[in-house]
# Entry
Amino acid sequence: MLLIECPYCGVERPELEFRCGGEAHIARPEDPSGKTDEEWAEFLYMRTNTKGVYAERWRHIHGCGRFFNAVRDTVSDKFLKIYKAGEPMPDLASLAKEAGK
Amino acid sequence: MSQPYRTEKGGQIDRDRKISFTFDGERMEGYECDTLASALLANGVHLVGRSFKYHRPRGILTAGSEEPNALVGIYRKGDQTPNLRATQVELYDGLEAISQNRFPSLSFDIGAVNDLLSPLFPSGFYYKTFMWPKAFWDRVYEPVIRAAAGLGKPPKNPDHDRYANLYAHCDVLVIGAGPAGLAAALAASETGARVILCDEQASLGGSLLSETTATIDGKQPADWAEDTVADLAARDNVTLLPRTTAFGYYAQNFVALAERVTDHMADPDPALPRERLWQVRAKEVVIAAGSIERPMVFPENDRPGILMAGAARTYLNRYGVKAGQKVLVATACDTAWQAAFDLADNGVEIAAIADTRKIVPEALMTIAEARNIKVRTGCVVTATQGRKRVSGALLGHVSSTGAVSSAGDVACDALLMSGGWTPTVSLYSQSRGKVVWDEASGNFLPGAHPQNERSAGACRGLYGLNAVLEDGYAAGEDAAKSATGKSAKCTYAVATGAHAGEGGTLGDLPNDRDASRVKAFVDYQNDVTAKDVKLAVREGMHSIEHIKRYTTTGMATDQGRLSNMNALAIASTALDKPLPQVGLTTFRQPFTPTSFGTFATSSRGDFFDPVRKTPSHQWAVDNDVVFEDVGQWKRSRYFPKDGEDMHGAVARECQVVREKVGLFDGSTLGKIEVVGPDAAEFLERMYTNPWKGLKPGRCRYGLMLNDAGFIIDDGVIGRIAEDRFHVTTTTGGAAHVFATMEDYLQTEWPDLDVWVTSTTEQYAVIALQGPLARDAIAPFISGIDLSPDAFPHMSVATGTFSGVPCRLFRISFTGEIGFEINVPRRHGTMVWDTMAAEIEKLGGVVYGTETMHVLRAEKGYIIVGQETDGTVTPDDVGMSWAIGKKKKDFVGKRGLARPDLIAEGRKQLVGLLTKDPRIVLEEGAQVTKVPDPAKGTSAEGHVTSAYHSPAAGRSIALAMVKDGRALHGKTLYIPMPGGAIEVEVTEPVFVDKEGGRLNG
Ligand SMILES: [Zn+2]
# Structure
């Protein structure tokens, strides 16, 4: 079981308290009706599904209830960075480098 | 004579405390601190089981948890626990053990015919044999194989024991309490770090408990271990866990331990659990798992009486048990010689030491000579004899070319073997560490550290007692420093004697026999021979993972701890590839077999899943309800009276609701309070419908889509005030809808000033439906004008029910006049009981979910998840009216415009009426154009709901049918095993099509 630090509660808690919410930084388009079918399908279904360093959404569902984002190495299962919703996506390449990948 | 193989003195058993036990019904004696294995050996019993596939007689091979042969059943409290390793079962007075995998008895076993038929059971046997004919699989092969193979019998009754669970945190977890582990715990705890030290054995000390030739700080190793354990036990920051196996190493230093709490007790306190699962989160881990002696792969190396040399030494020095009276030692390394010397010193005749090496250390030769022990160098065992216990062996000389020539036979009643030592890297490997081949020692050793752990002592290939102790201290200091930042001075104990020793062999040994008639076992428990591994390679299995699965080597309960290296070496030779290139298979959790009870802990029976009960629960129980499980909820399904079946009860309930009034518990409905200045705007975006124009005091049916455009939930939403909505959801969708709202609110529209709060558990919902519903509630409601003009259909108001604050909805899921009384949950039962008494006066009825389903289907009201399946749009179910056409956007709006969602030929909601009104269709049945469609024809649709409708006086059904709305009046078919059923397509409404009954 992973340990995850909620950036809002500021504490490490077991994975049981959290729920993963899929890839992060996929914003719902401002004007959905202005999108082509292809663009909309891309938004709905296409995910990078990275083997390696990946930014994903998590929710502290059995804690404060807040959504946040985390960069996790999907191979080692290690969290490289955890940050609040709304903050920009960190540079994944440099995080990967720091982690020695 | 009792215990004929017991030494006169010595060992750590308590000779003053005799213990009586039975094995296969035969009464025997042992001593306190014996294991079942040591006590059986003391009584001269080697034959303890039959092998898995060939039913060959098997004896005790090891003295530890890696034991592959001595699996026994233990009777307790009238039931039997199978597959316990006799080497780990501690003896207690009255212990009843049985052998396994034999019929009718251990010494005469019919299944042993498999051994004679063994040419029929090559590797890949299952894959080869069961290809054809297919029908033979179920009827012949599987029953026969299942009866003949297997290990032990499962217990017949539910597990009567309790299992406990706890979480623990520590700075340093030390796994293994041999010399390295004890030293690590001493050093780490010296700094004040919180230390947990666990070991799978009953006594902490590991190999120290069997070591007699060395001293540590001038003490006997076992005495030093005892003193050290006492020292550690006295430290407040140390938790000692004997009988506790670290069986799983998971992410972020999460380690699972299984503690055997009561299995060793004759009469355990019933308050104690049988086992306890420890889920430990350690800042740092020291793995001190030691090493395991490798069997030698020579022909017939599996007879009872053949055991590991190190195990024989443990039985002698720790338990005071001699493995035999005349012992042959076959070895490829130094350590087995010490076993021979120790046995000789205890009066056992050593028939010979046969070492595969041409040259052995002079020091050993000298000691052997002093004891008059015959030594045969450059010698291997080429055959053994003796059916139920080894009686002798043939030796062979290996020439420099590898040719083997007979070197005579040796009579013996026990044969000790040692192919060298394999470091136990299982837990390191589980921590996702990658082992590295060490050419010098011929072992795989731990490599880089993916987690905060380090290995110490023999498990990282270090031998020699002093070196192991030093390594343990250093590992403990390092772990504590990393965990706490603190260091402390720790005086290292110094060991003398017990040298590291040299030598070892891998793979099968040469012999002068007909290769086709030789069985040299690699994996004892799964009956895999050297020949099987070679055959697998010949048949094209070139990856070790394929060889493992094809032969099943390494797949037994020891997880290949005994067999992997030998199998790998044999495969490497057969493949003509260097061993490290063949690669080691992955070690997986659990390290040793772990009971289901330990995994389940208290999550059994009533505690498996929470049960959610409604306010009417007790009333329903008292009134002969039949419940149905809806998620975790217990919902009343129907209330049979006077021997009614479901059909009868539902017909009565339906009729009374439509004629008079019915009472229904709707408390399971999901409820969400949406509050804030932007509440209406938020709902505009979340639901298809418009909300801004809805007046406070009014309700509207809301439809929720996902962004793909498909229906995911529905429910009535009441506007309580300008900035406050009472949202209801389906019972099953409550949690998901709430989570979805939070998701959009937090991540897409954080600018909206809205709060959403789940109130499902806070409100009880008591529904009254039927022409007399108003009369039923009127006497108890205050503060609300219930007249049809003041409080029409789709209204909501706050008032009181018998003085209790309530939100009253006028809504209907039946097509009748309907009210839903929402009160704080604690008052729910009062409202229910009040209304139950009141409707009885009015001739009303209490109804359940089954009647609810029929009544709504009569009106064509959909149930999300029954009519819909995640691919259904509002238009598909005739609900285009629910879409706010003027809204610029809502979740799902863009999705609805996707080409496939607006294409022709989508399935649409229709009603179906069977030609024969008595036939109720099967839900899920396919709908076709012709009665007997050709094979490969796609169905036109499927039946989603089907009931007998008392109001329609016939069967009714709802279905999703391709372009169904254009087919009203047409005939379709439902092909069934008994012939196709003819149906007519209709509107999906069967009762009160104008809807007038709603508005009374
Ligand atoms: Zn939190």
Remarks:
- Chain A has one domain: 3-26+38-98.
- The domain at 3-26+38-98 of chain A is CATH 3.30.2270.10 (Folate-binding fold).
